[in-house]
Amino acid sequence: MRDIPAGISSEIRAEMGRQNMSFRELADRSGLSYTTVWRKIKTEQRDFLYTDLKDISKALGLKISDLVARAEQSEESGQKAARHDGGESA
């Protein structure tokens, strides 16, 4: 099971892909530094502050709750697929 910050990071990357948005563009739109955005989304340092998530979500045109819900849905889908493929059991 992924932790919530990792799931949110994955969903942010997925949404960036859907919008064809670079890390630089997300940083510019969110008002965060490029280094902060890249480090929090791409590396293991995923300690998101509420204000960071709020700014990133807004830059993506989403609410924080949308990101969390999508991350949870992705996690649930992954668990169902793993059970279906003979991975972990319910």
Question: What topology does this entry show?
Answer:
Blueprint: H1 4-18, H2 23-30, H3 34-42, H4 50-60, H5 64-84
Describe the structure.
The protein has 5 helices and no strands. The model has no long low-confidence stretch (mean pLDDT 84). The chain is elongated and about 45 Å long. With 90 residues, it is mainly alpha-helical. Helix 1 crosses helix 5, helix 2 crosses helix 3 and helix 2 crosses helix 4. The longest helix has 21 residues.
Estimated radius of gyration: 14 Å
Number of beta-strand segments: 0
On the 0-100 scale, what is the average pLDDT? 84
- Most strands sheet: none
Number of helices: 5
Given as residue ranges, the uncertain stretches (5+ residues, pLDDT < 50) are none
Strand content: under 5%
* Shape, principal axes of CA atoms: elongated
Helix content: over 70%
- End-to-end separation: 13 Å
Concise synopsis of the structure shown:
71% of the residues lie in helices and 0% in strands. It has five helices and no strands.
Question: Descriptors for this entry?
Answer:
90 residues, 0% strand, mainly alpha, single chain
